[in-house]
Amino acid sequence: MPSCPSLVLNEAAGVVAASTGNHGRALAHAAKSAVCRAVICMSKLVPANKIAAIEALGAHIHIVGASQDDAQAEVDRLVRDEGLTMIPPFDAATVIAGQGTLGLEMLEDAPDATAVLVPLSGGGLMAGVARAIKTINPAIHLVGVTMQKGAAMHQSLAAGAPVAVTELPTLADSLGGGIGMDNQHSFAMVRDLVDQTVLVSEADIAEAMRYAYFEEGEVLEGAAAVPLAALLSGRVQPSGEVIALLTGKNIDMTLHQRIMAGDNPDLEAETAHA
């Protein structure tokens, strides 16, 4: 795992983070428990249900721009002007190490696994899980799965360095956003430890969400369904025992109902006409 220096928290000012919804919700929960001010910066692409869940925990919301890069610029301003402590969503040693504990838990439950599929966004989860798993068993095939629309880490790996991408509406909304042009940890770890990255379509994601619900009784948000989408679509065809990490169900239930009814929403078109 990367070295994990302790964060120096300015308790009087509070904490701040950019988020596509899930990291912000976790930070808001932690800040409420610690009786600490939390500010979560998000773009206008973040679904309303995720914003409402963060507000319900008492965090302050800043909606800024049309991308995570815009939200991060607001985070940087708040750190500079108000002294808040930034808690990064993925590119931080402590965050990567914490997420890596999932890799340990998975191998405890499935020690004979031959392949592990993980949702891929900024790479914190993927980097932590990869370091944990590869340390225990380097032979396990690690696959990062992301959506076709705005796949920042996938495109950065292809380019050999972080690149800027246009963030687009997608069912896998919590995988959106860039990886940071000055990425310090997650890019190199994903590059060095992950064996394969795979893209799935919006239709693949919707079908995986339907499969999870009707076959397994599980509600999945789009980002959580991408590993399952890769398997069901045949884009990944591993042999042996396979682990697909399904990371959450933080989805607007009206949207989920539409998908269960057979709709494959064109979120980009809907956003354009909103």
Task: Tell me what the structure shows.
This protein is of the alpha/beta class and 274 residues long. The protein has eleven helices and eight strands. A four-stranded parallel β-sheet has the order 3-2-1-4, with helices on both faces. The longest helix is centred in the middle third of the chain and has 17 residues, at 93-109. The radius of gyration is 18 Å and the shape is globular. Mean pLDDT is 93; it is low at 1-6.
Give me the strand/helix succession.
Answer: EHEHEHEHEHEHHEHHEHH
Please write the CATH class name of the largest domain. Alpha Beta
What kind of oligomer do you see?
single chain
CATH topology of the largest domain: Rossmann fold
Q: Low-confidence stretches at least 5 residues in length (pLDDT < 50)?
A: 1-6
C-alpha geometry: globular
Measured on Cα atoms, how large is the radius of gyration? 18 Å
By CATH, the architecture of the largest domain is named 3-Layer(aba) Sandwich
Total domain count: 2
The residue-averaged pLDDT reads: 93
Helix content, binned percent: 40-55%
Distance between the termini: 44 Å
Reported for the largest beta sheet, the result is: 4 strands, parallel
Give the strand line-up of the largest sheet: 3-2-1-4
Strand content: 5-15%
Strand segment count: 8
Query: Structural class per helix/strand content?
Result: alpha/beta
